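Much of what follows relies on a compact textual record of a protein's fold. With that in mind, consider the following protein and its fold in token form.
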Amino acid sequence: MFERPDVGERAVIVHIDFSSHNESEDLGEFVELVRSAGVEAVDEVTGSRNQPSSRLFVGEGKLEEIRAAVQVNEADVVLFNHSLSPSQERNLERELKCRVLDRTGVILDIFAQRARTHEGKLQVELAQLEHMSTRLIRGWTHLERQKGGIGLRGPGETQLETDRRLLRGRIKAIHRRLDKVRRQRDQGRRARKRADIPTVSLVGYTNAGKSTLFNHITTASVYAADQLFATLDPTLRRLDLPDIGPVVMADTVGFIRHLPHKLVEAFRATLEETTEASLLLHVIDCADERRDENIEQVEDVLLEIGAHEVPVLQVYNKIDLLEDFQPRVDRNEDGLPVRVWVSAMTGAGIQMLFDAVVERLAEDVLQLSVLLGPHDGKLRALLHEAGSVIDEAYLDNGDAQVEVRLQSRDWHQLLSKAGMRADQVRYAENAGLK
């Protein structure tokens, strides 16, 4: 679609600190992004300004420095660790005589490389097209004229207008297909809800070790690498946990500082696995110097997608990178586990994590001792069928004293199936919550 230089593998990175901006981008993280995109960073140009130039983003002096770095290193592309407007990108390309990409463009390129499933590819294409739609003009300046000649006279349509129309049509088509995917996901989630199967969703900053942890817990073979955005497509696996039964574990895309809003929108179908979860495992790289900032960024994205009210268990991963650190579980004032320290690489603390997940999901588990007479045979059969009976003994009067352990919602469902109300149940002494 565009007549532009191809993206090469040698890049000059540009990072400017602005005194007028409260939150600056992290240069180290951007270097990791560039590495994840498979590009070799041959030089870094840094500087500071009060605020960006509206025309070139940088000043004339810094532009000369970037141009010199491109020529000396024979770079193919200049990557800005900032968001550039379409006109700034166009002006910079004209001045530097090479391809210019901003931070969003780099992230989109990584996403395009990583997407594996049909849905993931659709989501990436949607984000790319919406990003591209404002930048179409620079690729077709030589064709911005009305068609002419015999048989072609009349109002016509410029090549640019044609491309914009085609682009709008493609974006609408992708939206329709993603809506279909979203409906299918909703159907799957509703089926899990009807079957009362809890969902545990892994969230966290990119490269925190979510996929490695997911593989360790589920023995799946999800692609895991020391790269930003190694995982794009959500992966679901079924687990069986004691006292809980079947649980669906979901691995999701990692978050990042200032995640482009277009990506959040495009990946909403994927991120809905997070908003509908019973429990979030917030995986944190405990060895990262910017750990607290990363936690804050993840919480911001959870707020943006409406998942901030889902219960969270923090998983402090990579304790193998800390000196003489042993796995442990931190609890709140009510005794509930809120933080587990593990190493997904070595497996240290994984059993503690299992136990903590069970404890958090089993907050409403009931242990009851009920008296069932001959006329309560249906409830007794349902309890046995659900695997909730721990012990059973017959009394002299013909009643059965049944010890059961199950979740509160399951108990009320079984009562409903048996045609009984809660106030009709007879309890043995010392019955109730334990």
About this structure: The radius of gyration is 28 Å. Residues 365-418 form a domain with the Alpha-Beta Plaits fold (CATH 3.30.70).
